[in-house]
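WARN retry 2 of 3 for item q-0093 after timeout on previous attempt; input resubmitted unchanged.
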Amino acid sequence: MSYKPLTKAILPVAGLGTRFLPATKAIPKEMLTVVDKPLIQYIVHEAAEAGITDIILVTHSSKGAIENHFDKHYELEKELELRGKQDRMAPLKEITPEGVRLVSVRQPEALGLGHAILCAEPIIGENEPFAVLLPDVLMYHPKKGCLAQMTETYKKVHTSVVALEEVPEDQVEKYGIAEVQGPDLRISELVEKPSIEEAPSNLSVVGRYIFTPRLMQLLKETKPGAGGEIQLTDAMDDLLKEEVMFGFEFKGGKSYDCGDKLGYLQANVEYALRDPKLGHDFREYLEGTDLSSI
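OK item q-0093 returned
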């Protein structure tokens, strides 16, 4: 297979975020903040770090706040400038990474993750590899982001790469689990939420993917599955029959399922503790608080 550099990424952001109601009644779940930045901003910056220049937001009519966040707010910037608040201007200028273009397409119906990816096909094109980043999943690494690490693997293997992370064996039934072969983690099977007895490993798929162009072609042929939705996993199973696919084990960092309330709260606490301005005082507060009294 001929190698093409990875420059495009799809971010499916059309979900309604019902697990976070009432907060998400008027605010997109991707705009919920972890410390002082919305979730979606962390994801866009992770993509940019990996060399992505074109990001496609697959969105919904209720998600205008996401597009507005990455747009220029002339009135706000002018007001801050007039008041001499340059320190507050800097974070605004860092919202959209330099050299990155964001475009939006609509997913008219909630027909599954596979369908959301298909909605971006006119922009991705027929012969381009692409990444998919699920904005519910925040991936922290102290040195190099998950997608940037995966891109290094993709440059070597020239085929699809899927991020994997170990989970406790008694929790495998909550995740998509990969069966892998050999030290290079060649994927031989993907099992959606297996029982503990049937799980082929404890390596879960964690919301970061790099796909060859063939995946998009297979999605066009994928028939609706559970709930009438076009499932990404079904297309990935078909891809495994034609092409080699490798796992990338995410180590040295931590993932946070921010589509889950507990995971979202954990992300806020741990990102706050890492924050260079807030971390020291926040740690002192936690250490000095009698949690049993709360």
